[in-house]
TrEMBL record, chains A, B:
This is Transcriptional regulator, TetR family. One of its GO terms (molecular function) is transcription cis-regulatory region binding. Residues 31-50 bind DNA. InterPro entries: BetI_C, Homeodomain-like_sf, HTH-type_TetR-like_transc_reg, HTH_TetR, Tet_transcr_reg_TetR-rel_C_sf. Keywords: DNA-binding, Repressor, Transcription, Transcription regulation. Coiled coil: none annotated. It comes from Klenkia taihuensis. Pfam families: TetR_C_6 (PF13977), TetR_N (PF00440). Residues 8-68 form the HTH tetR-type domain.
Length: 199, 199
C-alpha cells in the first residue's frame, strides 16, 4: 500500500523552500532544481505538485498573502477601528524575519509581473483582497467616530495599501534606514494624521 | 577613416530599446539578443557598450533616475516650497507613457534586487539621491512657513519617497484603479495634509 502523503503539507514545504531561495538569492536563482534541493526532494516530486516555475511563484505569492491575512485576523480578534487597523498594518509589515521573507517574495513577484499580464492579474486580485480588509477596519473606525465625518474612505484605503507596499520596499532596499522601529514610527504618524482630522 | 560614432548617443539608443523590451515583456525577456534586435544592432555592438545584462539593467535604472531628476529640475525652475514639491512629485509619477515605462523599469529593477546585494546598493544610492532632492523642497517649504514649525522633515521625506513608489506600483498592477487623475488626487490630498498641520 502506498504511503499516504499529506499533499497540502508537502506543497507547503516546497513553497517554504521557494521562499528561502528567493530571499537568499533572488527570483532568477529560484529554479526548479534549486527549490528541489532546498526542499530535499527530487525534481520529479516537485513537478508532481506544481506545473512550472510560474505556478510555484504564484503559489508562493498566494501563500504569502493568505498568511498575512490570517495573522491579521488573529491579531485583531479582540479590537476594532483604528486600534485594529494599527495592529493589522504592523502584521503586514516586515518587522521580523518571517515577514521580511514574505516581503521579499512579494517584491520579487511584483518585479516579475511587469510585462506579464497573468501575474499582474494575480497581484491585482491580492490588492482587491487587501483593500476589502483595510476598508473593514476603516469602516469600523468611521462608525466609532474615530475619523472625520467627511473622511474619504476609499482614498484612505489607497493610503494604507501604499504605506504597506512602500515601507516593505524600503525595508528591503535600505534595511539600515527603514528599520522595524522606523516602520512602526511612520505607521503611528500616519494614524495620528488620519485621526487628527477627526477633531 | 572610421565613422565617428557618438558613444553616449548609442548607449542611450540601446537603453531605450531595453526599456521598451522590459515594459512590453518583463525583465526575463530582456535578453541581450532581444535588446539588440529591438535596437537594430548586432549583439557584437551591444557587447561593445555593455559588459553584461546586469550592466544594461543598472544603466537603464540610472538613466531612469537621471531623466526623472532632470525633468524635476526643469519643472521646478520657477517655483519653490510646496508648489515645487507638487510639481516634482508629479514629474516622478507614471502620468504619461514615457514615465509609465520608467516606472516599469524601476519596479523590474526593484524585484531583481531582492537577493542581489549589488543591485540593492545601486537602488539604495538612487534613494539617497531622491531623498536629498525631496528634502530640498521640504526645507524651502519649511523656511517659507508652509509647514508646521515642528514638522519632522526626515519623516516627510520618507512619506514622499513611499508615495512615489507606491503610486507607481499600483499604477503598474492596477492601471484601471490607479489612473493618472487618481495619482494626482492622492498627491494633492497628501500635500493638503502636510500643509494643514501648519495652521
Amino acid at each position: 500500500m502506498p504511503k499516504i502523503v499529506d499533499h497540502a503539507e508537502r506543497r507547503r514545504e516546497v513553497l517554504d523552500a521557494t521562499w528561502r531561495v528567493i530571499a537568499r538569492a533572488g527570483l532568477d536563482a529560484a529554479t526548479t532544481r534549486a527549490i528541489a534541493e532546498e526542499a530535499g526532494y527530487s525534481i520529479g516530486v516537485l513537478t508532481h505538485y506544481f506545473s512550472d516555475k510560474q505556478d510555484i511563484l504564484v503559489s508562493a505569492h498566494r501563500l504569502a498573502f493568505a498568511r498575512a491575512r490570517d495573522r491579521i485576523l488573529v491579531a485583531t480578534r479582540d479590537s476594532a477601528g483604528v486600534t485594529a487597523l494599527r495592529l493589522a498594518m504592523l502584521e503586514a509589515l516586515p518587522l521580523d524575519d518571517e515577514r521580511f521573507v514574505e516581503a521579499q517574495v512579494d517584491v520579487s513577484f511584483l518585479g516579475q509581473s511587469v510585462g506579464n499580464a497573468y501575474l499582474r492579474g494575480i497581484r491585482s486580485a491580492s490588492y482587491e483582497g487587501s483593500r476589502r480588509l483595510w476598508r473593514g477596519f476603516l469602516d469600523q473606525a468611521a462608525a466609532a467616530g474615530e475619523l472625520a465625518e467627511d473622511a474619504d474612505l476609499p482614498r484612505l484605503v489607497d493610503d494604507v495599501v501604499g504605506m504597506v507596499d512602500s515601507l516593505s520596499i524600503q525595508a528591503i532596499v535600505d534595511p539600515g534606514h527603514m528599520t522595524p522601529d522606523h516602520q512602526v514610527l511612520l505607521v503611528d504618524r500616519f494614524l495620528e494624521r488620519i485621526a487628527r482630522t477627526a477633531r
